[in-house]
């Protein structure tokens, strides 16, 4: 496995969505650093904000009313520096691939210019009633493609 090289926040696309969060007491372990699973909780919150603020899709409506799930089917992380209680961090999701029934993204977590962690996430779209895979809905696909284009050249997209 090749370990990613940290990138400064300013090296990310200027058009990318950034969710600003503050590391809370409850996010930390007894050593005062972010307990690693909490980065995934924060990442999911940032993705919910991305849907609402940049994609124009109500995350809760998608899941609740439309019955379309967007659960992680792959989640991996590279931790570069510890985050600590009180840190102001920016979470920047970048779309890596949009497939038939899934999409992949890299989520960069920075404190200032310093990259603390990078999450590799793959999300499958599912019918929540049957708990089966379904194609990425057309409106979500269009929004993801638009956001990806705003952030720079896409890497891999399939119908």
Automatic annotation (TrEMBL):
SUPFAM superfamilies: Thioesterase/thiol ester dehydrase-isomerase (SSF54637). It comes from the Bacteria. The keyword Nuclease does not apply. Keywords: Hydrolase. Pfam families: 4HBT_2. GO terms for molecular function: hydrolase activity. This is Acyl-CoA thioesterase.
């Amino acid at each position: 496995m090749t370990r990613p090289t940290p990138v400064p926040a300013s090296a990310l696309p200027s058009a990318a969505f950034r969710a600003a969060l503050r590391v809370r007491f409850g996010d930390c372990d007894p050593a005062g650093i972010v307990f690693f699973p909490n980065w995934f909780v924060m990442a999911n919150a940032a993705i919910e904000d991305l849907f609402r603020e940049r994609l124009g899709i109500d995350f809760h409506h998608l899941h609740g009313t439309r019955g379309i799930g967007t659960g992680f089917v792959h989640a991996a992380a590279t931790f570069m520096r510890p985050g600590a209680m009180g840190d102001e961090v920016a979470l920047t999701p970048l779309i890596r691939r949009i497939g038939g029934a899934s999409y992949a993204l890299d989520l960069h977590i920075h404190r200032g210019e310093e990259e603390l962690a990078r999450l590799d996430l793959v999300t499958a779209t599912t019918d929540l009633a049957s708990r089966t895979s379904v194609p990425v809905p057309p409106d979500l696909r269009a929004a993801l493609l638009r956001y990806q284009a705003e952030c720079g050249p896409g890497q891999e997209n399939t119908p």
